[in-house]
Design a protein that fits this description.
This protein has 436 residues and is mainly β. It has one domain: Fucose-specific lectin (Neuraminidase). Helices cover 1% and strands 42% of the residues. It is built from 1 helix and 33 strands. Strands 11, 12, 13, 14 and 15 form a 5-stranded antiparallel β-sheet that branches. Strands 16, 17, 18, 19 and 20 form a 5-stranded antiparallel β-sheet that branches. Strands 21, 22, 23, 24 and 25 form a 5-stranded antiparallel β-sheet that branches. It is globular. The two termini are 37 Å apart.
């Protein structure tokens, strides 16, 4: 018997882990079987195909709405569905948001938009979703759409900035809430470059206006540094952190042409505001993948990456000491970039890591304790996946997990955590979000 009570805004369950049954609005239908077969990730490392953002009330984060974005396989159009209530996603409830966009999928960010002087969708919480345009007239441009809380958002359209560049991957995004801005970065190549090498291009919207007047900023790569990556060979891992007072930080991690990781940090304090030098983190990471960063405390974050040896690796950064040693997470060989998120409960925190196993193509999960001891074993989540997973943190101790099955359909499972001393999620119940 499972007994649940509400404590401090989240659910505490008498058993160690409380997976709940998902609902897609088809309660009268026969429970569908999870598709089986061989994962395409065995051929080349899989990337994230879905994007999820969480719109949570400050007073009741467990009542958050999750907005999920995908690329429709039939025509490449961008589509969205949202949770009807925590852990509930109705099938055949997808809304088209424009396009087409190139694969594998979009990226998305939720940020606090201004109301004055340049209003964006009425101000307040706005979701911005981005992809690479796949239309013949604007192939390679950024496709961007703002979606306000109360409406369909501005008309989605490709945005051509003043320097024509060839996009090489989905944009990476982050938000500085106190600045009413969001940033995005792309790995791209300028056709006019003699050597055709890729670099990082940066754009930001602050107070509703494009900061660089429609131009791309590339100084982060070109600024003086004792050393730097010879080439940018990955989408950047990106993290924005609010600092003391009105100060903030931005961290970039990229892979170079040899697969080594590099880090660079924007520091707003102590002044003057500037990029620090490039820092080599070494290692050798899998071609075609990208770093994943997650903030763990006010003064630290973790970097996760898939090695060229198919092992999963992690490094911890702290404001006091910088990066520590690189460690392997065990679990055998993997075949996707990881999805990571921080959960909290019982006064402790943990990082949950999910990735596709190379051996059987199934999603595997591991929890890494932050200030609490865990067995930290990888567990099988019960589904063969054709994409890297996507995690949406709902409240302090809840998670919705999304992935694409071997037939291309989209599936999800909610997990509710309680006893932070135990790492497993238990037997999750998966359900499809039909209609694509």
């Amino acid at each position: 018997m499972i007994i649940a009570v509400a404590v401090a805004g989240f659910i505490v369950i008498a058993t160690a882990v409380g997976p709940i049954s998902p609902s897609n609005g088809d309660d009268e239908a026969v429970k569908p079987e999870i598709p089986t077969g061989k994962s395409i990730c065995a051929n080349a490392p899989c990337l994230e195909a879905l994007a999820a953002v969480v719109d949570a009330p400050d007073a009741h984060p467990e009542q958050a709405t999750v907005h999920l974005f995908a690329r429709r396989r039939a025509d490449g159009m961008l589509v969205q569905t949202s949770s009807a209530s925590p852990g509930v996603y109705h099938s055949r409830n997808w809304t088209e948001r424009g396009g087409p966009i190139a694969g594998p999928g979009p990226s998305a960010i939720i940020w606090q938009a201004p109301t004055y002087p340049n209003e964006v969708q009425g101000g307040g919480a706005v979701v911005t979703v981005l992809g690479i345009s796949a239309s013949a007239a604007s192939s390679g441009d950024i496709f961007l759409r703002h979606i306000g809380q109360g409406g369909a958002g501005t008309a989605g359209a490709p945005i051509s900035f003043k320097y024509r560049i060839e996009m090489l991957g989905v944009p990476a995004t982050c938000a500085i809430q106190q600045e009413q801005r969001f940033d995005f970065w792309v790995q791209a190549r300028n056709g006019s470059d003699a050597d055709g090498s890729a670099t990082l291009y940066h754009q930001l919207s602050a107070n509703g206006a494009w900061f660089y007047d429609g131009r791309w900023e590339t100084d982060v790569v070109l600024q003086t540094s004792p050393s730097r990556p010879a080439a940018i060979a990955s989408r950047p891992g990106l993290l924005c952190r609010n600092g003391r007072w009105k100060a903030w930080e931005q961290h970039l991690v990229v892979y170079d042409g040899d697969g080594a990781a590099w880090h660079r940090q924007w520091m707003q304090e102590p002044g003057p505001s500037q990029w620090g030098p490039w820092e080599s983190l070494g290692g050798k990471y899998a071609k075609g993948t990208y770093p994943v960063l997650v903030e763990t405390t006010a003064g630290s974050f973790q970097f996760f990456g898939l090695g060229s040896d198919e092992q999963m690796y992690s490094m911890t950064w702290t404001s006091a000491q910088g990066f520590g040693n690189r460690t392997t997470l065990g679990g055998g060989a993997f075949a996707s970039v990881p999805a990571v998120a921080v959960s909290q409960g019982s006064g402790s925190e943990r990082v949950d890591v999910v990735a596709v196993s190379k051996d059987d193509g199934r999603l595997k999960h591991k929890a890494i304790g932050l200030g609490v001891s865990m067995d930290e074993q990888w567990e099988d989540l019960g589904i063969v996946s054709n994409s890297a997973p996507t995690l949406a943190k709902v409240g302090l101790a809840s998670m919705d997990i999304f992935t694409t099955a071997v037939d291309g359909s989209i599936w999800y499972a909610p997990a509710r955590l309680s006893d932070m001393g135990r790492s497993g999620w238990g037997n999750l119940t998966w359900a499809p979000i039909q209609g694509l």
